[in-house]
Amino acid sequence: MSFLLPDAGLLFWMLVVFGIVFFIxxxxxxxxxxxxxxxxxxLIDESVRNAQEANERLKAVNAxxxxxxxxxxxxxxxxxxxxxxxxxxLLNEARKKAEADGEKIIAEARHIIQQEKEDALRDVRRxxxxxxxxIAEKIxxxxxxDKESQNAVIENLIDNSLKEKQQx
Amino acid sequence: MLIAAAxxxxxxxxxxxxxxxxxxxxxxxxxxxxxxxxVKDSYEWHITTWGSKHISIYLPVILYSERTGWVAFSSSxxxxxxxxxxxxxxxxxxxxxxxxxxxxxxxxxxxAIDISITKTVLAVFINALLLxxxxxxxxxxxxxxxxxxxxxxxxxxxxxLLVEMVxxxxxxxxxxxxxxxxxxxxxxxxFFIFLSNLIGLVxxxxxxxxxxxxxxxxxxxxICTFLAVNxxxxxxxxxxxxxxxxxxxxxxxxxxxxxxxxxxxxVKPFALMIRLFANILAGHTVVxxxxxxxxxxxxxxxxxxxxxxxxxxxxxxxxxxxxxxVAFIQAFVFTMLSSVFIGLAxxxxxxxxx
Lengths: 168, 354
Prior knowledge:
heterodimer; A: mainly alpha; 2 helices; rod-shaped; B: mainly alpha; three-stranded antiparallel sheet; globular; disordered N terminus
């Protein structure tokens, strides 16, 4: 069982070598490695935290923009509605005005026509009267040679004129 | 390494104390001896036997004895002479395989100091050098690149995975506030053990060494943990050992609890030492035993031997894969328990907690 007994020489060398190795690695080896690993761990933690924050901020911004968009859409709808109402009003007003104008023009036209007609009638009457008087003069000059025919003519004339009056 | 190279020499076999190749008909394979020779320390590094030629690296022997004072020579002398300046390699007894001399009464005794560069010492040198090169290369990579969000790929990425595991999964939860202070020690221990375990699984030179399966090596590591625990233990820790919170009669006239606590101080690193040593030694032994099955059965019958070769190779592959897992687990467990013990020696005052 000699391998259960530690050999002093080997123990000595092992302690020396391990001591030197430990000294070298503890001074030049592991602190650099552990430092970098630690540094990266910190960096990664920080980045993850930052990313999370950014994410949350992005979410907030998204919500905000959504809100804005919604408001804008509502505004747009409102404006469209108002525009439609205004257009309808304008149209109605224009139509009403046009109708009123039309009626006025028609009324005026009617009035003028009436006047023209009356003027024309008056003219015709005046001419008829003048003609009648001339005709009467001629007839009278020719017929009023004897008394009987004078009377007959007068009666006839009166009858006719009476008839005329009744008809006119 | 340079010393080792200087001592390297292939040699014709006229070789007394291992591997009997004399007679093929009666070639008995002493499996126990074969395995022990592989897992035990020796003064030379036997790489392979090519035909009848042993190719070994002969390592320097450094001794101090009251009889001769300091002496240093190559272990190759033991192949040419049975004895050199009164030193020879013991063939049996407690010091089997070690260099001994005769004392005044004619008894075999070890020289006062034997700091020879043995096979395991050389393996420790190689592993340590490799570890330093790897870690400094990785550190250089980080220094050059600076901090960046991008994780490194390839070898550095794998290395970083282990570093992160040791620092954040082992040291931080067990030690607490001062984990960064102890991180370099835990990392050095972890990577030394892990690397040594893996190199031990490589079947050819410079692998195949049984470093972490040698009790002196694990003892040195356990001593380091013991020092880390007790040098940096705080007041609370020493109070709990010398004057624990128990009824006074347990500690007043006879310091019962303090004795138990002090005993515990030594038991903890002892457990570390034995666990690592036994696990790795067992792994090496099992692999060698499975390989030996081929040769043992081949002697009985070549048919059985041929069939067993297949089975044995399968089992050896299985055990080797298992050993890779064990290599990691034992390094992990050693580091984990070290940090637990260090953490126990840093109790925070109860009012400070939370």
